[in-house]
Specification:
- It contains two helices and eight strands; from the N terminus they run ββαβββββαβ.
- The protein has helices spanning 40-44, 103-106, and strands at residues 17-19, 21-24, 45-48, 58-59, 71-75, 88-92, 95-101, 114-118.
- It has a two-stranded antiparallel ribbon.
- The radius of gyration is 14 Å and the shape is globular.
- It starts with 16 loop residues before the first strand and ends with a strand.
- The mean pLDDT is 87.
């Protein structure tokens, strides 16, 4: 969500966000157990949508036609207890690829725990 991170071939800044806000936090992120974990700064800056059903955030990454592996990286910075408080669907090209994704629950009900979703 924030500024560029080392090795821009792997990690992109929020320059591709078309709908949504950005924010960040300074708390350390537990990246243990995450395959090919991103640099900590990737998790510490994020893009968000307004709260509520039907709200969206959108990212438009300009790529050539082809087949791609997409791994999204997340860390929950705000929920402090109980999964299910913030769930969202992940769509690629307007197709739901992950329904009801819950970063907090995926991280073992832990705050500041890195998690991924492979699409």
């Amino acid at each position: 969500g924030g500024g560029a991170v080392a090795n821009p071939g792997l990690w992109s800044a929020s320059q591709f966000v078309t709908v949504g806000g950005t924010s960040s936090f300074a708390t350390a992120v537990d990246r243990t157990g995450v395959p090919d974990a991103a640099p900590e700064a990737v998790y510490q800056s994020y893009v968000f949508a307004s709260n509520g059903v039907g709200q969206r955030l959108s990212v438009d990454v300009p790529v050539t036609d082809g087949t791609y592996f997409v791994r999204l990286h997340f860390a929950e910075a705000n929920i402090t207890s109980g999964g299910g408080q913030r769930r969202f669907d992940i769509l690629l090209q307007d197709v739901v690829r992950q329904a009801n994704f819950d970063v907090f629950a995926r991280g073992g009900n832990a705050r500041f725990k890195a998690v991924t979703s492979d699409l």
